[in-house]
UniProtKB/TrEMBL annotation:
Pfam families: NADase_transloc. The lineage of its organism: Bacteria, Bacillati, Actinomycetota, Actinomycetes, Propionibacteriales. Keywords: Membrane, Transmembrane, Transmembrane helix. Residues 31-99, 146-177 are annotated as: Disordered. Residues 154-168 have a biased composition (Low complexity). Coiled coil: none annotated. This is NAD glycohydrolase translocation F5/8 type C domain-containing protein. It comes from Nocardioides cavernae. The chain crosses the membrane at residues 119-140. Residues 65-75 have a biased composition (Pro residues).
Length: 342
């Protein structure tokens, strides 16, 4: 067992002796013997001398010489001056509990890394979340007329386009006093009267049910019913009489027979209308073209007050192909939107 070279105590764990605090591995300190300190000699109290006032000095009188300091009597050895007391450093009593580092504060160092920039990940995550919300808002803010579902559950697509003004004033960009109507927007085709030049006779469907193709079915709100006529029907007119005069601002049509039954889609099996012309009471008209899609395709028009709307069929597709192809022109629904006339 190692012992301290300074005090001889057994050495433990650490860099210092736990008994005297001497650093381990260093030589023993040199012991310096100090000479004995003589007690200080107390000088005798001098006899007090009464103060005297200084003599008046004139120019002819010299100042008295000061009396010499008392010295040792003749024939005696002078006393030696007392030696100055050696300065002793105040020795601090060593306490191992205060002067030594605890072993655990040196050996057991926490090596867990400090993540000083963890806030960066929170900021990035918040920005990504905001971006996702913006994208979702733009997606759900799309026009509902682009894609919709009809009451029968069939997927339909709608097309809305600005009207092509044909009056000279509108074509030149001159502002016109267009009516606005009163009240809320209404579906004016509901309750309207439909008149056509010809109607195809009823037929029996694949389930054995009798199916009619009356003109009134263009305003019943059900795209699975339709008005149908034989052949191309180009040049024929559909006259719609509104329940009362109104300000029309939007028109539209399902330009074919949009019925699906028993796995058969009758839209491509009949002729589809490719373009029509809408004419109003004041003589203004607007042309609408259609895509071959079995949904409501709408067109915004300059507001016009009218009691009747005449639809002229301008162009249609060829008959349906295949065994189920039919040489009929069909219209499933007509839409006329506006407000009551003021």
């Amino acid at each position: 067992m190692d012992r301290c070279v300074a005090c001889g105590a057994e050495l433990g764990v650490g860099r210092f002796c736990l008994n005297c605090g001497h650093p381990v591995g260093t030589p023993a300190p040199e012991v310096v013997e100090h000479p004995p300190i003589a007690p200080p000699v107390q000088a005798a109290d001098p006899t007090p001398v009464a103060p005297t006032s200084p003599p008046d000095l004139t120019d002819d009188a010299a100042a008295p010489e000061p009396a010499p300091a008392p010295g040792p009597e003749p024939g005696t050895d002078p006393e030696p001056d007392p030696e100055p007391e050696p300065e002793t450093e105040a020795r601090h009593e060593w306490d191992p509990r205060e002067d030594l580092l605890p072993y655990e504060s040196v050996d057991d160092v926490d090596e867990t890394p400090i993540h000083g920039r963890a806030w960066v990940f929170w900021v990035v995550g918040a920005l990504l979340l905001v971006g996702l919300v913006v994208v979702l808002l733009r997606v759900f803010d799309a026009d509902d007329d682009v894609s919709a579902t009809d009451p029968a559950g069939q997927s339909t697509s709608e097309q809305t386009a600005p009207a092509a003004a044909e009056s000279p004033a509108d074509a030149e960009g001159v502002a016109t006093d267009a009516p606005t109507g009163v009240g809320r927007a209404l579906q004016l085709a509901e309750g309207a009267t439909f008149a056509v030049e010809s109607t195809a006779p009823p037929t029996t469907d694949l389930d054995g049910n009798l199916v009619a193709y009356e003109a009134s079915q263009m305003g019943d709100g059900d795209p699975t019913t339709a008005w149908r006529t034989e052949g191309a029907a180009e040049g024929q007119e559909i006259r719609v009489t509104l329940p009362q005069a109104a300000v029309v601002s939007r028109v539209g049509m399902v330009n074919g027979y949009a019925k699906q039954v028993a796995g058969v889609d009758w839209y491509p099996n009949n002729r589809r209308i490719l373009s029509v012309t809408w004419t109003f009471d004041d003589g203004t008209s607007v042309e609408q073209t259609f895509a071959e899609l079995p949904g409501m395709q709408r067109l915004d028009v300059t507001p016009v007050q009218t009691g009747t709307v005449v639809i002229t069929i301008d162009a249609v597709t060829p008959p349906g192909a295949g065994d189920l192809g039919r040489d009929y022109t069909a219209v499933s629904e007509i839409s006329i939107s506006g407000r009551q006339a003021g």
